[in-house]
Amino acid sequence: MTVTPATSTTSTATTPDSMKQLSSNFSTFLTLLTTQLKNQDPTSPMDSNAFTQQLVMYSQVEQQITSNDNLKTLISQGTSNAATMAAGYLGKKVSVTTGNASLTGGAANWTYNLSGNAATTKLSVSDASGKIVYSTAGQTTSGNSSFAWDGKDNNGNQLADGTYKLTVTAADSAGNNIKSSVASAGTVAQIDMTVSPPKLVVGSMEVDLSDIAAVAN
Prior knowledge:
Elements (H helix, E strand, L loop, with lengths): L14 H24 L10 H39 L5 E4 L3 E4 L4 E7 L5 E7 L5 E6 L5 E7 L12 E10 L5 E2 L1 E13 L6 E4 L2 E3 L4 E5 L1
Antiparallel strand pairs: 1-9, 1-12, 2-7, 3-6, 3-9, 4-5, 4-7, 7-8, 9-10, 10-11
């Protein structure tokens, strides 16, 4: 007897549809098997290995469908928890340490820190594509310094609102690099639920929850 192998359903099928199809295939298989057993030659009984393997395969497919259903439930719960957590940031002031800041209405602000006094400090602002659009000299004293940018490139052209990144390059008189860090702050105005996990919207910038360094009311 030739039996059509059981196969898993495509990813687009829903779990109820998958189980329904599996049940239908299994019923057909049992009908064919019963008919074959009734009509087999007693002097040459059929090999039981074929339908035994098929029974095992049906069991494995059923287990996979159940596992997929459980996984979807876990993912749904995780997404719901992430959305609830993200919503808790609404209206809060957050600090971001990726170097990114939102240029909104021709204004973007950063704070940068030098681990020691520098002989030279260069500030470079790049757009979302990584292209440097503005550069200038920065403070050389150790500790925190602020940098306010009006959104104009080095040719005086006003750039569009969006996310921009500040990079600080500092060196001492011997040419050794000075360690630096960059942060920006802003108020969470809304939550983008169209992506997973949800992102916080600060000005015109979207921020991952994992990039938040501090939160204040």
